[in-house]
Specification:
The chain is α+β, with helices and mostly antiparallel strands. The chain contains four helices and five strands, in the order H-H-E-H-E-E-H-E-E. It has a five-stranded mixed sheet, covered by helices on one side. About 20% of the residues have low confidence.
Amino acid sequence: MPRHTITAASFFPALLILLSIASSSWGFTALHHQQHHYSLPSPSSPLHASSASSGGDPSDIIARKIIVCGDVDGGYYRSCVKNEGGRFRQLSGTMSPPDGSKKAEILVEGKRKMVDGFIRWCERGNVGLSQKITVESIQEEEATGLFDDFYVPTGRA
């Protein structure tokens, strides 16, 4: 008995034909009746203005200094910054050690797309455990490549 191999090239067209036959025989004129219209935020909107980059290739290596205020001295927020920057976005950089001033600097380097996403995460402000964080400023920096990981001191000796 010959063995038949199903490939993606033969499977998907057949699936589309079956779906079109089924939808027409069941009285559907389309698989989904609603159309979603999405638009990009205007350049003056807060979401667009909050991104510290000015366009460019998403894979360009950039650096930003983010000044955050609020409950930044706690270990929970610092571990969230380390996880978000280092583990999830593969960024490198550092965060200033806790000094009791309710203000911290986060220096971050990496691909533009990842840095912009990290900035949006910082601007969200609520990381959990009722800690409130605000971004005071975002400054462009020169990418140096000095960091090979994301370092976040906790203040412990």
